[in-house]
Amino acid sequence: MHRLTDFWKVVRLQALLMLLTVSALGALGEISIRAVHYFWDRAPIDRSMSHLVDQDEMLGWRVAPDKNETYRMTDATGTHLVRYKTGPHGFRLFGNPSTDETKVLIIGDSFTLAFDVSNDQTYYALMQRRLAPTQIFAYGAAGYGTLQEVLFIEEIINLVRPQILVLQVHSNDIINNSYELELASYINNNRHARPYLDDNGAITVRTPQSKLGMAMTVLAYYSRLASWAVHRFDALMAVNAQTRTVENQIQATGFDHPGFQRALRLTERSLSRLRAELPATVKLYAFSADHREPFATAMGALLTQQGFTIIDGVADAIEAARRRGEPVFAVDGGHWSPAGHRIAAGIIGDKLSCDL
User: Fold this and answer.
1) Are residues 102 and 250 located together in one domain of the fold?
2) What whole-number distance in Å separates Cα of residue 234 and Cα of residue 225?
3) What is the rounded CA–CA span in Å between residue 339 and residue 229?
4) CA-based Rg of the chain, rounded to a whole angstrom?
5) Sign of torsion, CA 222 227 230 231?
6) Which residues contact 3 (CB under 8 A, 6 or more apart)?
7) Beta bridge partners of 166
8) Same domain, yes or no, for 66 and 112?
9) Are 288 and 304 in contact (CB under 8 A)?
10) What pLDDT shows up at residue 68?
11) Cα separation values, 307 from 165, 265, 286, Å
12) What is the C-alpha separation between 231 and 210, in angstroms, rounded?
């Protein structure tokens, strides 16, 4: 009996020591990553941007307003400082809503958030200088789908009262507009709760992941170490599951993919809602930050049906510059460097200047 009691004492002691060791290593890792963040990167680990984003009951998340950050980023030209600043409502550029000048509202995702470049290097800041005295209001949120953008526009439209709306889109918008497709995606699922439209037009907020995944996401929101681990795991899964991700299935089957067809109907419903909410006098423009098919063609057709003028050539021009050896992409190889933003600003600015 005494030997059995002694055995369990040893087991409990070993378990306690293991728990203390794991806790100490976790605390050391958390402190180390936060120290790197504070003293070197001056930025969230792995582009998670958790402290620059606020959770939102309806939108899922939104860009935090009134932030002022300086951090280092790297692209083909080397390491450079980025001065990231947001104003009211999370806008990176917020003009004068009371002006009598023409007002342009630009809404998009991470390409418009433009975390890789300073405020004055964004495509819309460059357009602002070129199109002055036109007032530009630009808001982008990483990972946003069409419905989130529409809901945000509905929230802000009476404050800005623009004459022109520019919607920046991406091929992953169609994935993000469908719970079914986002749940099946390894490369365009950011694991956060977001609003989705159903076939009846109702909005529900759902999280496209398992309960374990949801727990890890919550932990990653509060812990930089967990955030680092989760993003590393996501990157590994994305690389190893490229052939199984739903995007490649859609590319193989095209418009015959049933999930893709449903996602297109949901996207069309979101765009119809936007058109109905805007005054008929607002001019509508849209451009895509990439050209992955069949998503780009499908989105272009839906936008055209809703009265948007498509600004063609942005993604193609940036890709052509990359082939010439120009450093147009940020360190992730997808988002734009300052050079990429300059190209986008020229094409979009040319189109808008003809109609101002």
Assistant:
1) yes
2) 14
3) 31
4) 23
5) positive
6) none
7) 106, 285
8) yes
9) no
10) 95
11) 12, 17, 10
12) 16
Instruction: Please indicate, yes or no, whether residues 285 and 346 belong to a single structural domain of this protein.
Output: yes
Q: Please, how many CA atoms are within 13 Å of residue 230, restricted to the half-sphere of its CB? A: 24
Residue bearing the bigger pLDDT, 5 or 123: 123
CA distance 275 to 33: 45
Task: Specify the number of domains making up the chain.
Answer: 2
Question: Are 119 and 260 part of one and the same domain?
Answer: yes
3-state secondary structure of 303: helix
Check whether residue 90 and residue 15 sit in a common domain.
no
Structure tokens at 312: 């063609």
> What is the 8-class DSSP label of residue 281?
T
d(CA 261, CA 253): 11
Size of the chain, expressed as the number of residues it contains? 356
Q: 143 and 222 in contact (C-beta within 8 Å)?
A: no
Look up residue 120 and give its amino acid. D
C-alpha distances in Å from residue 167, one per residue of 131, 141, 153, 230, 339? 18, 12, 10, 31, 21
According to DSSP, the β-strands at 283-288 and 164-169 are: parallel
Distance of CA 162 to the CA centre of its chain: 23
Residue numbers of the domain that contains 186: 45-355
Cite the DSSP H helix spans in the chain: 2-36, 110-113, 123-131, 146-160, 172-176, 179-183, 211-222, 224-240, 246-253, 258-277, 295-305, 314-323, 338-355
**Are 175 and 300 found together in one domain?**
yes
- CATH number of the domain bearing residue 120: 3.40.50.1110
What's the CA gap between 190 and 203, in Å, rounded?
19
**Residue 62 confidence (pLDDT) above 80:** yes
Give which of 140, 123, 107, 138 is closest to 346, Cα–Cα. 123
pTM of the model as a whole: 0.82
Same domain, 114 and 69: yes
DSSP, collapsed to helix, strand or coil, labels residue 164 as strand
CA 21 vs. chain centroid, Å, equals 37
109 and 216 part of one domain? yes
- Choose among 17, 130, 108: nearest CA to 356: 130
Mean per-residue pLDDT over the chain, rounded: 86
The answer to whether 213 and 229 are in contact (CB under 8 A) is no
Confidence at residue 42, expressed as pLDDT on a 0 to 100 scale: 45
